[in-house]
Amino acid sequence: MTATDTDSRDEPEDDLTLIREGRDFEQEYRLTAAEAGRFLVEVGEQLQEGDELTLTGDEWTLPFSFGEPVELEVEYEGYGERALEIELEIPGTTDEEAPTVE
User: Fold this and answer.
1) 17 with 59: CB under 8 angstroms?
2) Mean pLDDT across the stretch 80-88?
3) pLDDT score for 14
4) Does 33 fall in a domain?
5) How many distinct structural domains can be found in the chain?
6) Which of 2, 11, 52, 71 could form a disulfide with 89, with the two C-beta atoms 3.0–4.6 Å apart?
7) Is 12 domain-assigned?
C-alpha cells in the first residue's frame, strides 16, 4: 500500500463518500502482488467473520451486507500473454420477507 492509502484510513469516515444502494460504483487499481495479496486476505477475514464487508478507498467507503452462496471463478489463459483471473461475486442480502400464507 502507498502512504496515501494508509493516511486515508486515518480520516474520519464522515469525510468519505458513502457508496449506497441504488448507485453503481467501480474503481480499478494497479497494485503489486503483495498489496493485492494483503487486500484479498483482509477481504477473506471479513467474509469469515460475519455478514458485512466494508471496503474503503481514498475518498469513499462501501459497506455491503452479503448473503450466500458466494460465487468464485478461476480462469487461466495459457496461450500468448498468460494470465490468471480470479473473480469473486458476493450476493447482497435483502430486507424483504416472505409473504404469509392464510
Assistant:
1) yes
2) 96
3) 66
4) yes
5) 1
6) 71
7) no
Give the global pTM.
0.74
| Pairwise CA distance, residues 65 & 54, whole Å | 9
| Inside any domain, residue 21 | no
Per the CB < 8 A criterion, the answer to whether 87 and 72 are in contact is: yes
H helix runs in 3-52, sequence order: 3-10, 33-49
pLDDT of residue 9: 44
Query: Residue 67 forms beta bridges with which residues?
Result: none
Quote the domain boundaries for residue 81. Answer: 28-87
Between the alpha carbon of residue 54 and those of residues 13, 49, 57, 65, 82, the distances in Å are 12, 12, 10, 9, 32
Radius of gyration of the chain (CA): 17
Angstrom distance (rounded) from CA 51 to CA 35: 24
Residue 20 belongs to some domain of the structure: no
Rounded-to-integer distance, Cα 28 and Cα 37, Å: 15
Looking at residue 45, what DSSP letter applies?
Answer: H
